[in-house]
Amino acid sequence: MEQIYDLHSHSNASDGDLSPEMLVLRAKENGVTHLALTDHDSISGLAEAQITADKIGLELISGIEFSCTWNKKTFHIVGLDIDPSNSELLSGIASLQSTRSTRAQQISLKLEKQNIPNAYETILAESNKAMITRSHFADFLLKNNYVSTKQGAFDAYLGQGKSAFVNTEWASLEDTLHYIKSAGGTAVLAHPMRYKMTASWMRRFLTAFKAEGGLGIEIITGRNNPDEIRRSLHFAKQFDLYGSAGSDFHSPKNKWVELGRLAPLPINIKPIWRLFSQSPQTT
Ligand code: AMP
Ligand code: MN
Ligand code: MN
Ligand code: MN
């Protein structure tokens, strides 16, 4: 049977719109055979996703997308095939949970000063204990007619340097890799072309990432073009990294990004799933 991997997706345990159950069902409908749920700094959707995956015969890869700060820049590091019960991992998540909670209150305060009250309280009440992200604030601003599009919320308030932006120190690169490796997982640099970084900064980052035990890089993501694929591939080759593929699906509302709708991984790259414990039989 053909295998379709989608190794980056979000549920409402962070800023996705679907419950873990609905996400897994949608992946199955789209023909995905191997799905990684990778919520921002959270694994709280994994148990529900696993139950659904077992029921319908889909291979769930336990994952997470860590927020990481290196040289004052934010990177997202996906941890794949992790043991969700590992104590080092859990203490790392607890620390990021507290960072996110403080930051959300700071964002809310900045909004309040601009006559937009109660953002944090409202989001907290409606989010069902999800990890709170800027996406939640964007939805709040949209729902309450402070902006007319979600992108508008980032442009006016939440984007870097905008009026409600809070500069955040996430986990260090060393700690992030420690959490993932302790849990037996594989660390993958998410969406390398989204950082708007020069090639020389990217090389510096990847040198550090490799030194800490990073193994993979996303080559195929939800919305990349052939030139971005080519450049990602170049970094993968240069640093001898495994290639990953993941849609970064958040919501059915985004018509451009769908679970499992991904260009094939170029054949001249080692697929990251070769390293997974569950699926040694593949290509
Ligand atoms: P955070 O990790 O809390 O800074 O939130 C970042 C999340 O916000 C990302 O994972 C995206 O899901 C979402 N996001 C960031 N920029 C945009 C944007 N311009 N439009 C819509 N969503 C965005
Ligand atoms: Mn997100
Ligand atoms: Mn990301
Ligand atoms: Mn993501």
Helix and strand content put the structural class at: alpha/beta
| Quaternary form | single chain
Q: What would you say the CATH architecture of the domain at 5-86 and 185-275 is?
A: Alpha-Beta Barrel
- Tell me, what's the shape? globular
Distance between the termini: 12 Å
Heterogens: adenosine monophosphate, manganese (II) ion
Please state roughly what percent of the residues sit in beta strands, choosing from under 5%, 5-15%, 15-25%, 25-35%, 35-45% or over 45%: 15-25%
Our count of helices gives 9
Radius of gyration: 18 Å
Broad CATH class of the domain at 5-86 and 185-275: Alpha Beta
Count all strands and give the number.
8
Question: How would you characterize the largest beta sheet?
Answer: 8 strands, mixed
Helix/strand order, N-terminal first? EHEHEEHHHHEHEHEHE
Unreliable runs: 279-283
Pick out its properties.
disordered C terminus; eight-stranded mixed sheet; TIM Barrel; binds adenosine monophosphate; binds manganese (II) ion; single chain
Task: Explain the overall architecture.
This protein has a domain at 5-86 and 185-275: Alpha-Beta Barrel (TIM Barrel), CATH 3.20.20.140. Helices cover 39% and strands 15% of the residues. It is built from nine helices and eight strands. The protein has helices at 20-29, 46-56, 87-112, 119-126, 134-143, 150-158, 173-182, 199-211, 226-238; strands at 5-6, 34-37, 59-70, 73-80, 171-172, 186-189, 216-221, 242-246. Strands 1, 2, 3, 4, 5, 6, 7 and 8 form an eight-stranded mixed sheet that branches. Helix 3 crosses helix 7, helix 4 (119-126) packs across helix 5 (134-143) and helix 5 (134-143) packs across helix 6 (150-158). The chain binds adenosine monophosphate and manganese (II) ion (MN) (3 copies). The site of one manganese (II) ion (MN) has 4 residues, from loops. One manganese (II) ion (MN) binds at residues 65, 76, 190-191.
